[in-house]
Amino acid sequence: MIETVLEQQKAVAQVLSNDKNNRHLVPTWQDIDVLESINKALSPLQNFTDAISGETYVSVSSVKPVLHLLNTQILIRDEEDTTLTHSIKLKVLQYLNKKWDQSTEDLLDMASFMDPRFKTRCVSEQSISILKARVQSEMNEIA
Description:
single chain; mainly alpha; 2 domains; 71% helix; elongated
């Protein structure tokens, strides 16, 4: 939605400035700067949200790889980022990284390990042997 407002900024300003009662709503350059910063920080998250919130396919195995991708590529500080953009990215990462307790982390590791697309790509080196042993013991229990 923010992207649409930015794309249609001139049209919005034109319509609002024609109405005497709504002239105060015309976005100023400061408003546009804030909208651009928010859009730059949050627009990459929309694709991941759509991918993970599918109802017709399993998506729990994608959570750990997506989180890894957000931490290493998508939400890292860019030279062109404004202070506001960097602050938003940092707060999103902090929220996402402390969202999971250890048992949830183990479950996400197991789910991504069982998905042939990911295997151990997003699991820490120290956890791989523990994860493999856990998978093997659970398979033995089932059999």
